[in-house]
Amino acid sequence: MSVIDGQGRRYVVAALEYVTRYAVAVAVVDHTADSVAEFLMKNVVLRFGTFRELLTDGAPELTGRAIEQLIVLLQARQTNPVPYRPQMIGLVERYHRTWKDCVATFMQSEEQNDWSMWVDFATYAYNSGQHSTVALSPNELVMGRRLRPPNELLRSTAVTEAGELSAYHKKLVAAMEA
């Protein structure tokens, strides 16, 4: 799998809400404080409202001036449990492993460079999965309802009983033979 996609994106920036485990992720060209701050503003704040606390692993791109200004602007608090130790933020690390595994299933060859297109699908799948502790998905916890997956959009027939299905089938066969 190519590390850089066809549009120059090389990294995925993700934010997770710890209580609901709802994930938001986007592929970006660079992994700088500016790109992370832009991601947080466009994909988190403008969609879900401001956050009170930002828990980070202390990575340089999460401690830059742009992030500091965003935190002040939003009147939030930034917490770094320990200096740069990604393993301390286990939920985010687990999410990264999950989306990578999911995206890898869509990749057909090593030369394929459209991996970033599948990040949204992987995030949707992650947010649709039921959490074992509360028996609800992150989507249900955040939106208050279960999202209809695309496979439920297929037209359903008016047939509701097995007997009607048999009659419906015979009617279709007769129409095709006529």
UniProtKB/TrEMBL annotation:
Keywords: Kinase, Transferase. One of its GO terms (molecular function) is nucleic acid binding. SUPFAM superfamilies: Ribonuclease H-like (SSF53098). Residues 1-146 form the Integrase catalytic domain. PROSITE patterns: INTEGRASE. GO terms for biological process: DNA integration. This is Cyclic AMP-dependent protein kinase. It comes from Phytophthora megakarya.
